[in-house]
Amino acid sequence: MNEINDPKLQSIIATDDAYYLQAFGHRTPLCVDYGQGVYLFDTAGKRYFDMIGGIAVNVLGHAHPALTQAIALQAGKVIHCSNYFYNEPQARLAQRLGDLFGEGRVFFNNSGAEANETAIKLARGYFFKKGQPRAKIVTALQSFHGRTLATATATGQTKYSAPFAPLPEGFVYVPYNDVAALEAAVDDQTCAVMLELIQGESGVHPATLAYVDAAVAACFRTGARLIIDEIQTGVGRTGKFLASQLYGIKPHIVTLAKGLAGGVPIGVAIADQETATGFTPGDHGSTFGGNPLACAASLAVLDTLEQGHLVQKAAGLGDYFREVLTAIAEQTGLIKQIRGAGLMLGVELTLPIAADVKHRCLEQGYLIGIVGTHTLRLLPPLIIERDHIDAFATTLTAILQEATAQ
Ligand SMILES: Cc1ncc(COP(=O)(O)O)c(C=O)c1O
User: Which of 57, 109, 139, 144, when mutated, tests ligand 1's pocket best, judged by the most ligand atoms within 8 Å of its CB?
Assistant: First the structure.
């Protein structure tokens, strides 16, 4: 790590080192002060283009007036009330999401992991209520579904669960995009198949159409519920409101979180009417889930996406971004593969220089993500424009050219 000269940043890092539970270790030495549009500003006043968007959260960028006004208005009315009572933003958002899914029923949580917990419980509850309990849940290797005990276990990467054993039972893993393995794993004891359509955390790996079709067919054959984790791919990220629409499928349960309220914590599991029978009153709950503030924020996000045609634009901008990255690949010879859909992009490099590239981007005022040693991860706000992509391309090209020159 470079020497840190800013005394304010030094002091914040020292306080964090002393008091914050060291689950994140040493973070990027940047303390966010405020944001505006596609930019974040640090406590020293330096401006950064946010190409990682809070890991797919800040779909409207930062301090979007429609979102901040909706939050302020709702905060001035009521921030929270218990789920003993009805609240209008919750009912309206439930209707909106239920309709977007297609005759869906929704349950609100506060995060992606919780939404996936809801989905797992709902699928098990569905078979329990039918009097035919099923425990087995098939998930993919290299997946990521969250950090609670059940979702870390559902995650097909033991590094996230092994230290916390004993783990919940019933989870079975298959290689991603291996149709035969999936077909063999799903039987009449399978409660659910749980998948991401594009594995984000492990490097932006899309599922093949054949794999997704096989998952749908296996669930149809056995009655298992198909849970699609759209926590990262949802809310327009891939150029459709749900990535499920890209694949032309209708899962039994979809989970969303991240971008859904533009940064206000929220999660949701949306189920079809039949699967929704898995919960009866008293089976599930959440103190904060579906509170008026989060739901009002989410309604403002959905309105803004719709009014600005931002989801359709994400599809076009994603295509443009790919063209630009393809040109950089040809120019530098340093890009092996460009993966993803819409504004969810993974750029695999030919050399193990992802950390260096990220560091140089930071110096040049761009925040990007990386996966492992080779892959750059880009999840910009959906309000990004072509000019921004062009400017980033110029910077990235120069950084990669420097890398080859060394
Ligand atoms: C696909 C997917 N599922 C679940 C989660 C967990 O969401 P959260 O961190 O909000 O609990 C994430 C977070 O990165 C994710 O990408």
Answer: 144
